[in-house]
Amino acid sequence: MLAAHATHELSGQEHLRTITLDMGAQLLFGLQWTPLLGGRPLQMGRERARLLHATHYLVSQEPGAVLGYGKVTSAKELRSDLLYSAAMQYARAHASGTVACVLPHTQHGYWVVAAHEGQVLVQSDKWFVSPEQTEELLSLLALRFPELDVCWLPLFDASAPPEWLLPRPEVPSRLIRLGKRRVPKILLAVILFAGVAAMLFTQTLDPVRVASEPTPSEAMRWDEAVRRIAELYPIHTALHIAQVLDEWRQAPLYVAGWKLKQIQCESKGLEWRCMARYQRENRSALNKSLEGMTPQGWIFRPFDLDHAVLTWTVQHAAQSLNLTGRREREDWMNYLQEVSPAFESIQVGAPARLAITAPVDGQGVPLARPDALVSWQKRSVAIKGPMRSIAALSGLKTSMHWRTLSLSVDAMSGVGIARSQLVVQLIGDLFETIQ
Fold first, then answer.
1. Looking at the DSSP assignment, which residues form a beta bridge with residue 149?
2. Are residues 376 and 259 located together in one domain of the fold?
3. Rounded distance, CA 225 to CA 359, Å?
4. pLDDT value at 59 more than 50
């Protein structure tokens, strides 16, 4: 049985609501969320939560680090060690795709949560007074994520809560309580004495030292850190993109009153997760007609009376990014300039160093970066143009990680040879070594 609990206010307009589970765990609705950029997200998240005067926080690191935080004022809940984030619990239950949920409550209003590939979207986990305000947020999310799947739940009933609230909350959803930072005076004295002693000891050593090679355990830890970063950015060659486009050609353009409007694919590991959106053009169009023409291995999903989607996965359409070897520098910029007339637009961002968080030793001290470790940088890339022009990218040999591939049908755009009704957009990152 779930029971509604007290209300806690945050910064005037933000509100925390609490629902207590029958096993004693308490779920917080209405945390604030913010992305974390850079290395050491756990430490950074704790420090930022402290600066924001939060009492509780959590950090989720996959696929991108975000901080959830809130200020609990109830003395009883401040002492509780079983506070969980409802938004993170929802995201954990929806590990793939982009989804949103609206939960109406008789006393508190409308709670909106959204997740992308198992990660809470920072604009969500909010309460609204009216459905109109809720729709405004959902519209903004849909502009950013056209494949957004929205679910309106029935009015909250404590005897029949949503399925993702029924299992015991998972550890990643658990909030960490922030205590006051206090350093005893005797500890400060010990630290000061240790620092002076270390300085005196260092000065007595021979200034000429031989650089030591990393121990096997240090090398293994750095290899693991590099591997984790490489897994975040699978590389897509021209052959991989052609494999995805071959799947697109299986999607029927017109089927008994149904018309293809858009296809969008998102990179997930070494595969692509794709969705084709269809619109009902006349009243004689039936779901069974489109479902009957669904290619083998694809899944038909009706959205409402006038819209439906087909979903499928393209397997083994990527390869791992090799960060250990230095590559010969390619003049990719000149190449993109040469093929740019075939596209409506090609945008390349400024370079940013690819950060690899240093592993730590048994005492939590970051290990020194090996001299042989190659330094990389990445640039954001966005390309838009006719579907037929994608073949012009086959000569681009540099390492490319494409996050999304999309096709818009009957969206006439571009001029001259770049004008087309079948418009493809690629968004991702370009990787190169720093010389």
1. 99
2. no
3. 7
4. yes
Tens-digit pLDDT profile for residues 137-148: 888 888 888 888
Edge-first strand order for the sheet with 176-177 is 32-35, 66-70, 56-60, 176-177
Residues 336 and 231 in one domain: yes
Reported confidence tier of residue 208, pLDDT bands at 50, 70, 90: very low
Q: What amino acid is encoded at 397 in this protein?
A: K
> By the 8 A CB rule, do 83 and 28 touch?
yes
pLDDT at 23: 58
**Residue 244 corresponds to which tokens in the numbers above?**
């995805």
At 75-88, the pLDDT tens digits run 656 566 678 898 99
Residue in 51, 89, 78, 61 with CA at minimum distance from that of residue 174: 89
Distance from chain centroid for Cα 323: 22
Question: Considering 262, 280, 314, which residue would you say is the last residue of a domain?
Answer: 314
For the chain, the domain total comes to 3
The model's pTM is 0.51
DSSP code string of 74-137:
-HHHHT-S-EEEHHHHHHHH--SSEEEEEEEETTTEEEEEEEETTEE-TT-SEEESSHHHHHHH
Q: At a CB cut-off of 8 Å and minimum separation 6, what does 208 contact?
A: none
